[in-house]
Design brief:
- The chain has eight helices and no strands.
- It is mostly helical.
- The chain has a single domain, classed as N-utilizing Substance Protein B Homolog, Chain A (Orthogonal Bundle).
- Keywords: RNA-binding, Transcription, Transcription antitermination, Transcription regulation.
C-alpha cells in the first residue's frame, strides 16, 4: 500500500482540504491560489496529495451541484451555516457523489471527526444527521437498508 492511500494520509489530507475550503469560502481566492499557498506554507509530504488536489478543485467546481443536494436536508439556509460545517458537508457530499471507492460510513465518520475538531460545540451532530440522510439518498444500495421515514 502506498503512502497516499493509507487511511492516516487520507485523514491528514481531509484536515488540510477542510482548511483550504474554508479559506476558499471566506477569501473567495481561486483553488489554484489556495493550493499554491498551501504547498508553500505546509508540509504536505505525509498527506494523500492527489485527494487534496481533487477535493480542493472539485468542490468549488461543483459547488452548485453539491449545495443542491445538501439544501433540502437542512433546517436553515446554506448562507446561515457556519463556514466550517458547510465546508465539511460539501466535502462529504462530494465524496458520496463522486468517490464511491470511499465507503459511506467512512465519509460520515470523517465528517463527524472534522466537525468535532474544527466545528461548533454540537456541529458534529448536525453534520452526522445531514450526511446520514444524504448517504441514504445518494447511495441507496449501500446505505439504503438504514432508511428511515
Amino acid at each position: 500500500m502506498t503512502e497516499q492511500f493509507r487511511p492516516a494520509a487520507r485523514r491528514r489530507a481531509r484536515h488540510m482540504v477542510l482548511q483550504a475550503l474554508y479559506q476558499w469560502q471566506v477569501s473567495k481566492a481561486s483553488a489554484n491560489e489556495i493550493e499554491a499557498q498551501f504547498l508553500v506554507d505546509n508540509d504536505l509530504s505525509k498527506i494523500d496529495k492527489p485527494y487534496f488536489h481533487e477535493v480542493l478543485h472539485q468542490v468549488p467546481a461543483r459547488v452548485n451541484e453539491l449545495d443542491a443536494a445538501i439544501a433540502p436536508l437542512l433546517d436553515r439556509a446554506l448562507a446561515d451555516m457556519t463556514p466550517i460545517e458547510l465546508a465539511i458537508l460539501r466535502m462529504g457530499t462530494y465524496e458520496l457523489m463522486h468517490r464511491v471507492d470511499v465507503p459511506y460510513k467512512v465519509v460520515i465518520n470523517e465528517g463527524v471527526e472534522l466537525a468535532k475538531s474544527f466545528g461548533a460545540t454540537d456541529g458534529h451532530r448536525y453534520v452526522n444527521g445531514v450526511l446520514d440522510k444524504l448517504a441514504v439518498r445518494l447511495r441507496p444500495l449501500e446505505a439504503g437498508h438504514r432508511s428511515r421515514s
